[in-house]
Amino acid sequence: MIELEKKDSIYHLCMNAGENRWNTSFVKEFAKALDEIEKDEGPGALITSSNDPKFFSNGLDLDWMQDPEKYSEGGAREVFGEEFMYLMGRIITLPIPSICAINGHAFGAGFMLALSHDVRLMREDRGFLCANEMQLGFKIPRPELALFRHKIPANYFFETVQLSKRWTGIAALEAGIIQGIGSYEDLPDIATEKALELAPLAKDRDHYSEQKEMLYGENAAINLAHGPAHMLKNSKKFET
Asked: pTM, whole model, 2 decimals?
């Protein structure tokens, strides 16, 4: 489901559950990988990727959400929302630089995962980024909106969350949603090069983490009471 490997100072986290749809079991496995990263010290950077050539992460596990008893391997449905949001909050404030190598479609929760990383790189020839909640008839939670508001330039924020725009790699780069593009074959090397460049920034992980908390933590959001990291980690407070 989740594979974590460390080479030198670089952590390679690979999602290997097909379309990598999100349920509680997937959240818990991802959280275990972060536990391992956070136990470590010194310079480092995370690269998150998928081993599926078509999908980075195709959003929520809808079959499980609609019938969690039938698909019990997905874990407890009632805790999913809070645990998933908290996981996104952990990623956004990870004490090392994080790079997301988006090799295919990233929809809904998968798009959130990508946005929670410091740097986003995307396949240039295939795949979409899309917040498709409106298409599915779901209301976007306030913590998720806070994340999108902070990571997407203002003039593209409305198109993304309200109009469910599908962003190609090239369009997402032009909009400032991602920071780089490459071919499917070159994307891993591009991500590794960026990770090696940024890893020394986390020589003092406490300092790197504290800086992130200042950027995204409590009372950091424009026109909101709290920043996205605080809202994601305390999602129960922001239920409507």
From this structure: 0.93
